[in-house]
Amino acid sequence: MKAAILYGREQVRIEDIQPPPLRPGEVRVRIEAALTCGTDLKVFKRGYHAKMIVPPAAFGHELSGVIYEVRPRLEVQRPSSFAKDSEDKQSKVQSPKSEEGRGARVEGEKGETQQGWKIGDRVVVANSAPCGECFHCRVGQENLCENLLFLNGAYAETIAVPARLVQKNMLRLKPQTSFQDAALVEPLACVVKGIEDVQLRPGQQVLVIGAGPIGLMFVALAKQLGGDVTIAGRRAARLAVARKLGASRVIDVGPNTDLVANVRQAIQQSRDRSPGRSAAEAGEGTSTVGFDVVIEAVGKAETWEASVRLVRKGGTVNFFGGCPANTTIKLNASLLHYSNLKLLASFHHTPRTIRLALEFIESGIVRADDFVSGEAPLSDLPALFQSMTTGNQAVKTLIRVRE
Ligand SMILES: [Zn+2]
Ligand SMILES: [Zn+2]
């Protein structure tokens, strides 16, 4: 089969590879939708990601498709206490209330507990699954699992899904859910986590910094949850999408400008135009413009620092965008203290937010139409990533893995 293999910095090749044989508990998924992602772009530029992908390795991680091969789990002789314990833990992450029937476990042959996956099932697979046993998994912080198992290889005709991912983070799609929509589950699950972490309440003034796919997903979700959303970002096409997704204010920050001054000026202007509007008035007369919540979805030291100057007293900043390794930022300690700021950083997703993300997608709140701006055949992937390093405007691109 054809697959994109990452070899190192800006080195991706499309190769004919032998699909690996399935191990017990694994399934093979024929990929129907694979999407490009900012993380993949980062990996492409850097050549690796210490946790997620070490080359040479199959590339890409946002996917959905159809199961076309299943290898049942073998019956393994285990001490009965261990078996019971580990099954219990699995059921905790597998059975959120709204998930009846999705990935439901049935009794397989010989009484072995298996999930009821079969050939032809339409599924979405997350890009990782937690172990369920380490400290962080036990305290409900599976996003921080010490042994997260990552899955890459979305830019390929098929993918072998490891047993742990099959058990914990592979979800069945409703018949009417499109593969493109479903492939948004992974990034959206991270955004769901980010929104939960800031405890957004209806009516709050939210500033999203960054108009990439993640920033745009924050706009859609914050709007859906009742926030009044302002976005500050670049590239007209992406800002137009933000407007469509419900941003009430769109600030084009342009190249090399002072973000804080730019946002303050735009807010001041909108206040002048409609004085009655609660356009972040909380900051009036204080040293900050005053958003209740600021979400940084860029991943640069400058924007992390700017975020803190744009939140109101008592407000919350989510440093969501991951900066390059070893980045440090400077913060004004007095501002933090006297403004009683809540600063936090969200990372990755949990099995629960993966399921919530699919619910947002299946209820039509987040749709691929708003995020996928083009299509490309697998053979064009290396050139596509090259163009993404130099300002390709697409939000996300759908990769056609079969030609
Ligand atoms: Zn992604
Ligand atoms: Zn763990």
Write a brief structural summary.
By secondary structure, this protein is an alpha/beta fold.
CATH homologous group name of the largest domain: Medium-chain alcohol dehydrogenases, catalytic domain
- Major beta sheet summary: 7 strands, mixed
Shape: globular
Q: How many helix segments?
A: 14
User: Structurally, how many domains make up the residues?
Assistant: 2
- Quote the distance from N terminus to C terminus: 12 Å
- Provide the list of bound ligands, each named once: zinc ion
Write up what this structure looks like:
- The protein has 403 residues and is an alpha/beta fold.
- It folds into two domains: 2-184 and 366-400, Quinone Oxidoreductase, Chain A, domain 1, CATH 3.90.180; 188-344, 3-Layer(aba) Sandwich (Rossmann fold).
- The protein is built from 14 helices and 20 strands.
- The structure holds zinc ion (ZN) (2 copies).
- One zinc ion binds next to helix 3.
Quick tags:
alpha/beta, 14 helices, six-stranded parallel sheet, seven-stranded mixed sheet, Rossmann fold, 403 residues, binds zinc ion, Quinone Oxidoreductase, Chain A, domain 1
Q: How does the SSE layout of this entry go?
A:
Layout: E1 2-8, E2 11-16, E3 27-35, H1 38-46, E4 57-58, E5 62-70, H2 80-94, E6 105-107, E7 113-115, E8 122-125, E9 128-129, H3 135-138, E10 149-150, E11 158-161, H4 163-169, E12 170-172, H5 179-182, H6 185-198, E13 205-209, H7 213-224, E14 228-233, H8 236-244, E15 249-252, H9 259-273, E16 291-296, H10 301-310, E17 311-319, H11 333-338, E18 342-344, H12 351-362, H13 368-371, E19 372-377, H14 381-389, E20 396-400
Parallel strand pairs: 13-14, 13-16, 14-15, 16-17, 17-18, 19-20
Antiparallel strand pairs: 1-2, 1-4, 3-5, 3-11, 3-20, 5-8, 6-7, 8-12, 9-10
Helix pairs in contact: 6-7, 6-12, 9-10
The structure holds zinc ion (2 copies).
